[in-house]
Amino acid sequence: MGQWSDLGEDLLKTFEEKLVLYVDKVRFRAVCISWRIILPKMVRQFPWLFHALNNDREASHGLFNPVEKKVYLLDLPEDQGKLYKGSSNGWVATVEDISTCSPAIYLMNPLTRSGIKLPPRTKFPDVQSYDPDKLDNEYALLVNCHGCKTLLHGATIVNRNLMDKIVLSLTPSRDDCVVVSIYGSYGRLAYCKCNDEKWTSFCNEHGTHMYVEERGTFMDIIFHKGKLHALKPQGQLLVFENMDPDSKVKQIASQLPRRTRSYLYLVESSDGGLIMVARHVRERPRDDCEGVFCFYKTSSFRVYKHDPINLNWSKVKSIGDEILFVGHNSSTSISCRDFLGFKGNRIYFTDNVSDYHKRGIQGDSDIGVFSLDDRTIESLPGLKCDPRLVWPPPIWVIPSFY
Asked: Which of 129, 257, 292, 305 is spaced 20 to 30 Å from 195 by Cα?
């Protein structure tokens, strides 16, 4: 009798065509490596929520599938106690939290348990020196003070607050994959490849590193049509022509007419356009805070579509069938037409409002679904765990075996 792995390509594709649920297609590919090689890569799917199971004795993490409303248990002891700093192409970027606060940075695939070690935090352009024996002052970091000043920071602060997001251009199994990070007090950009020894900063038109505040602050980054796109705090959108220190940078969207204090995200829509999402957050006291603002909660969102002709943003009240996913993940979208029972014109969000984290203000794992139809927020349907008891805050992941 033949091996399952020896089934022919035509027969495998015939079987797959009979599968309706995305999760069944994932399971089908999980049978063996040869099937994954033969079967075509899967199209854009509904993101899953990756989160720690702090008190579960059977598993360390869970992957919540919103389509099935089911949590898949994962035993990833090597990733317990790590913070999530981004997710792209099915991989999660992690750093150590309080336990060791080592400078190590990892990429981890929750499904395959594969791991890749990136250049550590000590190899970023802003690090002047690092001494692990200087408790709470391990890092001497270059900051943006018009003349470049060095300040001391503890490893916990650096890992938690001075590395905001990491995104990938491709799956890291490819040699041409580029990893980009927003880092530091003023949201700089640095990049590396998986086999590099250090992170590299981009230069401005004068040939100096982007340490000038007006040019160096970024809120979100994505790879769109193969190029890095970076969003600034007032809505200016820059595109980098290539990935090298002297890359030409072109502004393809001007800033918004009115200044905003909102947290901004950049999303590629399912039709290939660009969307900017503005997240509004309200601060409020809690009973145990004696009137001090120590709690925040997302109150609403605004959405803008990119106009590639006039190079600006147009505010829209509806995104139609689109469902957007924002947070620490590489912002993404799907069409509700591909998923029975789901409504479009929604924004699924997780907690990553780092400006508040830096000020010690807690967000109670601010997770939910915002409807642009009636501008209301509801909890994530089917999620049974209490987000307030989960640390670190969960992150959206698009499962992948590659």
From this structure: 129
